[in-house]
Amino acid sequence: MKRFHVHVHVTNLDQSIDFYAKMFEAQPTRTESDYAKWMLDDPPLNFAISARGGQVGVDHLGIQADTAEELLLLKEQAQRADLALVDTGEGTCCYARSEKHWITDPQGVAWEHFHTLSNVPVFREEPGAAAPGQASHPAPVATACCPPANLGRPIGIPVKSSPSCC
Which of 32, 63, 100, 143 lies 20 to 30 angstroms, CA to CA, from 89? Predict the structure, then answer.
């Protein structure tokens, strides 16, 4: 089974947790000082919010695969469709270690396809990174885990259908 994923930046985490707990009629399955996540079964949804200094609103969308095989099928589907894809491999983000790749729609909306491998105690692990809670989006390298912010809106993956790409 695959699960739809939405990540939203918020200004007040406590107020947002209260709102979404009421809306979903469920408490978050994971709560940190800057992050909360609901893993809902009806509808199948991985909904995350964070207060990490990003622009308020939808940060990115995604599809969470239950298995490595499902993730590979999503990657192959994107490649067959000739969608520009950035494979960031295994990394940590959002208190989880995952294998992932990214695509961007024609409007610049980032989509991640990912398979969660395990939970971790920090939002992100980066070589030479600042202490937890001080890290910013990583540079666009193979170990990047969240959308690299310095590539453009939101992650700068060229859209193959655009004549100005590549």
Answer: 32
- pLDDT tens for 81-90 read 888 899 999 9
Tell me if 155 sits within 8 A of 102, measured CB to CB: yes
Count Cα neighbours of 112 within 13 Å in the Cβ-side half-sphere.
27
Number of Cβ within a 10 Å radius of residue 117: 13
Distance CA 12, CA 15 (A): 6
**Domain range summary for the chain, segments of one domain joined by +:** 2-151
Write down the pLDDT at residue 47.
Answer: 96
Find out if CATH 3.10.180.10 is the number for domain 2-151: yes
Residue of higher predicted confidence among 141 and 67: 67
